[in-house]
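User: Could you check the structure of this?
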Amino acid sequence: MKFVQSVQNGTHYKASQADQDIDVLHLYGSYYDMGFAHGQLMKKELLNFFPEVYAYMLTQISDHNGTFTKLVETYGIDQALDLSYAQTKDYIKPYVMEELQGMSDAIGLPLEKIRRVMWIPELTRGSCSMFGAWGKATESTGGNLLQLRALDWDIDGPFKNYAAMIVYHPSADAGGHPWANVAFTGFTGAITGMSSAGLAMSEIGVTYPDESFGKEGYLAKGYPFAFIIRDILQYDKTLAEADKRITEAKRTCDLILGVGDGKSNSFHGYQYAPSVANVMLDTNLMPLEEWHPRIPEIVYWGMDWVCPNDNRMLSHQLNAFYGNLTVENTIQSITSYVQTGDVHISVYDHAKRHMYVSVAAKDGTPGPREAYARPFMKVDMDKLFAEPHPTAH
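Assistant: Sure, the predicted structure tokens are below.
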């Protein structure tokens, strides 16, 4: 970690490994304070990021993303994102807009322009992979929980140039506990992360569901999934609390979620849809197909719900290393073999409370583009969460 700068309620470091680097931000105080500090620390980057993302999304109006295309062609991109917000704003917690208002005030960009970018995940969800393995599956390392989150989404747009790990240290009045968000500069929802309470998140967008999901409705009323994930990391302390949050939520879209809990050495997957929320263990894992076999003490999915090729590849490697699944062979022989995790990868070693992170190559960076083919950085999460407030240095 190389120190860059600090402000009243935030500190900025660069974490580097070989040709790999990621911005690490520590934010403190109320949610407004943390949004304001984020803006102060990264003003230049944010003033580039938001217009670049917006311009890039306009280029993605094509047949490869039919639903997004239809919505934008019908309403326009501003109106489509505003409609999505209107359908979900009554379900979000106050911190969401408080933090965005702080960021807006710090960088001088209108709140609605920042907010629209936060709602893009509701309309465009990527393919990804995950697993949680414990017990006999990781016997060589004491049976401790090992978890994968691989994000496959978009390495052609601007996102890869703004990779960030944002560590929140909320004040007692703000509520919640410290947690780390692996995402992009300026993104306040969560898709990948780990908390000081020992919970870690995995997520997969579902493009190819089966009938068990029911009918998915875009622009549905409900809680945006990126903030449900954030709430789990920010507030929940146990798997039971995460189960309750997911199953009782007003859900808006089709996903697969995964939550690992280092304290109980256990992992739950979730079939997540507007009409269903099923908790998945190794004993009831679905879909039950020859290309997605159940493996004792492993919960996993490759790229999608119905995705025979990638699930075959992932299950093949999980079986090949069964009993000796480790961080090292997950990186060397699983994500690279399946070729999953082009944007970023987090491998969570729950017993040691370490997170191993790789991100896609920034523009102009030598070597492979995809995160699964690039160097990983090991992060000691306890040290990260213990980072003192900048005024305490």
